[in-house]
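Notes from the 1:1 (GR / supervisor)

We went over the backlog. Supervisor wanted to see one worked example end to end before approving the batch request, so GR pasted a single chain during the call. The sequence is below; no edits were made to it. Supervisor asked that the structure be written out right there so they could see what the output format looks like.
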Amino acid sequence: MCCESWSLKANWVLACYLLVLCWPISSLAAGSTLGKIAVVALQHRDFDAPNLALEERLVLAVRRSHARKARLEGTLNKARGEEGGVSFSGGAKVGDGTAKLVGLKAETGECRAHNETGAKSRAGEAYAAEVEAVDGAFLASVLIGTPPVRMRAILDTGSDLVWQQCMPCRSCYLQPDLPIFDPSLSSSFKKATCSHTLCQQLLRSSSPSSPCSPSSPNVSCSFTYTYGDNSFTSGELAFDTLTLLHPRGQECVQVKEFAFGCGYANHGASFTGADGILGMGQGPLSLASQLPSHSFSYCLTSLTTSRPSYLLLGDHATDFLQTEKGSQVQVTSILTNKFMPTFYYLNLTGMSMDGVHLDISAKTFSLKSNGSGGMIVDSGTTITYLQEHGYQVVLRAIQSKLSGQSQKVQSMFGLDLCFRSLNESMLPNLTFHFDGATMEVPSTSLFIQATSIYCLALGGSHDFSILE
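Structure output shown during the call:
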């Protein structure tokens, strides 16, 4: 499978027929060289319930996706009821906000910082995290602490907080591969206090019952952070050193005083198999926001392939994808919804099937002034959702094309449109049209196959669309 990368004009990239988000703050000048970059490889992995059959895992993944979508709709409705929506305070920094370029000693895997006198400019650099794919989710690997230990967290563009399970754990789920992080073993770990700007940002969005108050500014910053499927983590905000690798494996980057959550009580089936969550949203606590450059991109391969996916962070992450894959990058704009500012929105203007435009008005998917509409980029959902009217048009078009060519069966796996005994060559491709860019989704990504059953991996949504 090739990776088709495309960037979005004010800054976005899609790849491998699924979303690849790039948020560059500057572009390469003519004749300039590709800057430093780090990559995280994403590979598929059965973490939900490896002993279950494929059909059972699909049911769990789609059910979780539906629950997340419903929760997002509830969050939007609640935010729309609050006058003026939600906003982030500007200027929040983590520690000194610096990143150090370090060399990687191949024989030991240790990182060492360059001498200050020989330190390279931060401009044009990029870094990455290794990513593994799971049923309906992708795990990114980074290093945390001093000495650094591995953290495998679910990549989530729909949330901000980066967190992992920590000792001493009051109520933790099973981590099958890695031990729970023990902050007492890290010499660079320290807790955040209630007076810190990032603590105040976190509590405004997560923990109205926190012990933090004006009379206790030096108390540790305790929080409870809830997700779209009602899973949650409860713990303390802290700082430690984050380490990211260069894609070539020759260097790594250390971010001092990186803010993350130490979760002492964590609950949710969607966390199974991961150490925590890697929030990549637009808020100040996300991984992207805490790096010197806020740019990142990712390429997600099919869930049925063993080929790795990649998360790239830093300036020129888009250029790396284009250089590596030799593909043309397209550009479209990122929009922000004041009612849900964490999310990345795109302006979907239309759709076509096998080259024929579908009868869907551009207004169907547009972001409205009341916060409804628009298309959210969300790596946390398993399937793509379309606004209900557009979804019904797509369903009718696919049923019309496959009429007489296959046997339609009742809804399966939580998906609305399924067929049996289907000739794969008859399956259609679907194209998403954005401002200045198009993304073609091949039938192999549009349909989920289990034995002889093919189901359309799309769903309907009342308030907005979601590109997973």
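Supervisor's comment: Residues 54-80 form the longest helix (27 residues).
Batch request approved.
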